[in-house]
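Predict the holo structure. Ligand: zinc ion.
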Amino acid sequence: MKFSEVLGNEQAIRQIRRMIDADRLPHALLLYGEPGVPKLGLAMAAAQYLHCKNHVDGDSCGVCPMCRQHQSFNQVDTHYTYPYTDRKGSNCEADDYIDEWHEFVTKYPVEDYQAWLGLLKNENKQPQIFVREADSIIRKMTLSAYTAKYKILIIWLPEKLKEEAANKLLKLIEEPYDDCKFILVSDNEKGILGTILSRCQRIELRKPSTPMVAQYLSGRYGMDMQEALALAAPADGNIIMAEHLVQTESEFHEFRERFIELMRLSYQHDLAKLKVWSEAVADMKREKARRFLDYAVRQVRENFIYNLHNPALNYLTREEEAFSTRFSPFINERNVEGIVAELERANRDIAGNANAKLVLFDLTIRMSIWIRK
Ligand SMILES: [Zn+2]
């Protein structure tokens, strides 16, 4: 992986590049940030850059033997550790899951813990980094480097180190051999044992912007930018969520139709049809009904903003926009907050196990009052 393939975080890339150029990469570097913010790719790009013999324009070359070994996961001085379950026996190590790991980092450009759980095929057990793995790491990292000046260990999710394993690694991280570099990649740095955390130099990675996420979706799924922006906006920089939204795009079509129906029937004050509407939405599974209500809140806000006639502020698909050209004047400063509050209250009530049919029918009655304000 090259720096140029990493999404966002240009400043962190510059910082890491400077450290490596000056041969001052710390023994233990921690890259951390919220789940859904790409971090593992940057750790892999840093490892490749550290080993590449032929830097080009501040990046690894991608073609030298070292780069090729990195790209095919055959670099003998680069090791990975990650949480796993003991499905393959009580003595297993992370390397026993190396095929699953290769599939994971190849298939998912952004590390998705849920996807990793799926690949481990042992979803009832909490993956951890076991003591056995710590022993294996110590063995690997105390051997001399074969092919490069530095051996590298990338630890994905150090917060999943069992305490005993963390204590074993501590000495290695505290007093490392000169040729050892540790890169830790964390979704939750507060979950890391304090003694390990205090030995690391930390770099926080930031969420990519919505246009950046849209660019990513557009490149990966071949969508045009307007569609990609509409899907990227609700994900708020979380790539994993944006990917899920792409996969559930058909749900969005259904939500759009339901939303338009709700607004039209509310305006017509057609209580008989609103009752049918609320029963149909109540028939969705609880979580889906809640996703619909989230969607409706976003649409109400988008329509309010649409009245400002500033396209840069709006994230609507073409179909949504076709509706908004006619509908947006009905959302105004007198009713926008009231409507949003009703939708959010219905969402809370459904989450709290209230009768969804009653909650939703009640919502439609209130909506038909608000929409005329
Ligand atoms: Zn190279």
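Residues 52-54, 60-61, 64, 66-67 surround zinc ion (CB under 6 Å). Residues 286-306 form the longest helix (21 residues).
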